[in-house]
């Protein structure tokens, strides 16, 4: 059974299905009940499942995550919503010191099956602190898993997979893609959450992206195709752990790689991917791994964000550089 | 004493005299009290042994509890089978009363493992990040409530959480957020604050201008101050607070007014920041001495009884020393295995690389 849905609706359906499937799943966060969340991702869920399953939290991020730690200890599977990327930092200490470490500290006795949903990234003309890309902080923290969906089908399935995981998952939702529609296949068994996917096949170079930049890369590949350049696009889907098998096998074929992310360049995901590809494919590649990223500055005011964000043109420019080696 | 309120609950004076309180009564027997005395003596010995072990280089650090035995033993005895305890890092006597193997506590401070404890479902592993466990306890208590395990007619079906934090911790955001969450959801949690007057070198005056227990009112639940060196009063007050929580009446804040007689940890030197006269004054309020005096006068314990407990303490000391030799270091393999519940290909490959490196070294 297929249906065309926005990513926002697909997430809502996925959450609903998770709530139906397991009575231990509960949602918590600011304004997620009656309002349905500021992005309406949880719309209607409190009415359907009640105030004990869809819980409006006091305005305290550390409190939301720290109490979810306690709920995990009591056998629940909390899914918490952080209202915007820039507001996760008051809860950062609980995530990196408690959520991430509890399993190893207790010798595997205490699981932390928690999902931390964060609408992330720019491109919506928001006011400051509402458009950040904090993924590297979390991906650099052992014990956490970090994923990002890039289309409605993944949104629907990955949120359920994240909730089903016995590990804590930071679930990054590309907010500028919430209203993008796509086909959701409700019946076919999806790929595992930690598997990257080749969303466009090509032979000249591989574009590697996740979340909001997957669409931008597909747009770039479409333009490149008109100019006769055949680009492959890999949607990482999982940021930690990275699915190296898919990434390396793609780049082994195309022998050129460009990583694209919105987060600042230095020490971003692109750095890790470039290092790994260099270790694995040093003698195979025709050119160094190149990166198209945000700049090393705090996220800019909305009127200039389009200059900060990787664009189709910047990507194509970098593709040209890669091909010129 | 500074910050002390006139309403502080006390049932046994520092001289070992029983006093009445309008609201609280100790309902246990003299035998119970003898048991508490024994617990406190053994806890003090365990603590002294561990401190000595740190001096001998066997432990990386130790957090002495001396002076706080009554606060811990009295509150621990108020817990029932279904209740769950969230300690900070000095609750050795609570752990002992609940039956946590001492090897677990020693292992953490020796660095053989990170809190791989045996009774985790009852007594959570120690928390070093100040105050974070207040939220864990509150979330756990919210879970108890969701499970319908409060307010049942059958008391065995009810449970509550208790969390231990210090006076310094009361300044932390997490602790204050925990108070907010606990109040908003009426969670069955008891905040047991041991006000031992010091947060490393910082006096209570730097954390609060009012007695801590008065803060609870601002959050919307009862706060009460109890003489933390009086095991009878601590037991009575904690019984009341835990029963309120189990009954569905929500959170309570208990300020156990006490004193840390030793150093904050084996790394600091209290003579740098506090007056010895202060310590002398508190020595006169010793929790063990006062209970021993009372029970002696009552005829419930005598020299022979005390000598027997002293023997027990000696053999506990020997056990503690012997335990050190038996503690096993966690292996790198176990660590690789427990980072995630569901292993990742990337980490498995690091594990294999490390194994290959070791094998190469042996060859
Ligand atoms: C978040 C955090 N900040 C600082 C420290 C370092 N530290 C360890 S114990 C301590 C003092 C705590 O005082 P209090 O809460 O009164 O507890 P006590 O040790 O007196 O029982 C400090 C500052 C820490 N462990 N965690």
TrEMBL record, chain A:
<dbReference type="Pfam" id="PF02780">
    <property type="entry name" value="Transketolase_C"/>
</dbReference>
<dbReference type="InterPro" id="IPR033248">
    <property type="entry name" value="Transketolase_C"/>
</dbReference>
<feature type="domain" description="Transketolase-like pyrimidine-binding">
    <location>
        <begin position="5"/>
        <end position="180"/>
    </location>
</feature>
<dbReference type="InterPro" id="IPR005475">
    <property type="entry name" value="Transketolase-like_Pyr-bd"/>
</dbReference>
<keyword id="KW-0786">Thiamine pyrophosphate</keyword>
<protein>
    <submittedName>
        <fullName>Alpha-ketoacid dehydrogenase subunit beta</fullName>
    </submittedName>
</protein>
<dbReference type="Pfam" id="PF02779">
    <property type="entry name" value="Transket_pyr"/>
</dbReference>
């Amino acid at each position: 059974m297929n249906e065309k849905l926005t990513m926002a609706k697909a997430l809502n359906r996925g959450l609903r299905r998770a709530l139906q499937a397991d009575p231990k799943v509960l949602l918590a966060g600011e304004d997620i009940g009656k309002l349905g969340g500021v992005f309406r991702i949880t719309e209607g869920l409190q009415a359907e499942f009640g105030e004990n399953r869809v819980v409006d939290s006091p305005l305290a991020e550390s409190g939301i995550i720290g109490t979810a730690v306690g709920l995990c200890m009591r056998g629940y599977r909390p899914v918490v919503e952080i209202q915007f990327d820039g507001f996760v930092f008051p809860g950062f200490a609980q995530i990196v010191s408690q959520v991430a470490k509890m399993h190893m500290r207790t010798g595997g006795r205490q699981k932390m099956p928690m999902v931390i949903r964060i609408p992330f990234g720019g491109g919506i003309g928001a006011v400051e602190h509402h458009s950040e890309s904090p993924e590297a902080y979390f991906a650099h923290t052992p014990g956490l898993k970090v994923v990002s969906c890039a289309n409605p089908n993944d949104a629907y399935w990955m949120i359920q997979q994240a909730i089903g995981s016995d590990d804590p998952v930071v679930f990054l939702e590309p907010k500028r893609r919430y209203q993008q529609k796509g086909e959701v296949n409700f019946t076919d068994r999806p790929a595992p959450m930690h598997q990257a996917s080749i969303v466009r096949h090509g032979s000249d170079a591989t574009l590697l992206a996740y979340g909001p930049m997957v669409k931008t890369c597909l747009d770039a590949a479409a333009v490149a195709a008109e100019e006769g350049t055949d680009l492959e696009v890999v949607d990482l889907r999982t940021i930690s752990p990275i699915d190296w098998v898919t990434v390396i096998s793609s780049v082994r074929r195309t022998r050129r790689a460009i990583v694209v992310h919105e987060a600042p360049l230095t020490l971003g995901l692109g750095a890790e991917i470039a290092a790994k590809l260099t270790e694995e494919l040093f003698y195979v590649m025709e050119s160094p791994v190149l990166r198209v990223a945000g700049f090393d500055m705090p996220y800019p005011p909305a009127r200039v964000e389009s200059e900060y964000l990787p664009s189709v043109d910047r990507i194509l420019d970098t593709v040209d550089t890669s091909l010129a080696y | 004493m500074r910050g002390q309120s006139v309403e502080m609950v006390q049932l046994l004076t520092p001289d070992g005299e029983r006093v009445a309180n309008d609201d609280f009564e100790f309902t246990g027997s003299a035998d119970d009290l003898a048991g508490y005395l024994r617990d406190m003596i053994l806890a003090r010995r365990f603590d002294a042994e561990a401190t000595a072990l740190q001096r001998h280089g066997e432990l990386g650090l130790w957090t002495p509890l001396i002076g706080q035995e009554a606060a811990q033993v009295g509150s621990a005895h108020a817990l029932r089978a279904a209740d769950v305890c969230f300690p900070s890092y000095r609750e050795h006597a609570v752990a002992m009363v609940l039956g946590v193997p001492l090897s677990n506590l020693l292992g953490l401070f020796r660095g053989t493992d990170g809190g791989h404890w045996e009774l985790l479902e009852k007594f959570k592993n120690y928390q070093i990040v100040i105050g974070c466990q207040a939220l864990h306890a509150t979330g756990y208590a919210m879970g108890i409530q969701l499970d319908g395990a409060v307010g049942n007619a059958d008391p065995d079906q009810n449970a509550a959480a208790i969390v231990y934090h210090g006076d310094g911790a009361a300044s932390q955001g997490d602790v204050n957020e925990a108070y907010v969450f606990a109040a908003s959801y009426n969670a069955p949690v008891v905040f047991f604050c041991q006000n031992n007057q010091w947060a490393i070198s910082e006096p209570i005056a730097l954390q609060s201008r009012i007695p801590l227990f008065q803060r609870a009112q601002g959050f919307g639940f009862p706060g009460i101050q109890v003489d933390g060196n009086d095991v009878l009063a601590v037991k009575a007050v904690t019984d009341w607070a835990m029963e309120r929580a189990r009954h569905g009446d929500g959170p309570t804040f208990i300020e156990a007014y006490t004193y840390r007689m030793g150093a904050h940890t084996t790394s600091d030197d209290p003579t740098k920041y506090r007056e010895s006269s202060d310590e002398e004054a508190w020595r006169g309020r010793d929790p063990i001495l006062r209970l021993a005096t009372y029970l002696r006068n009552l005829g419930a314990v005598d020299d022979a009884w005390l000598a027997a407990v002293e023997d027990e303490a000696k053999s506990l000391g020997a056990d503690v020393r012997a335990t050190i030799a038996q503690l096993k270091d966690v292996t790198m393999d176990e660590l690789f295995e427990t980072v995630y519940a569901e292993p990742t290909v990337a980490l498995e490959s690091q594990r294999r690389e490390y194994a290959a490196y070791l094998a190469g070294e042996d060859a």
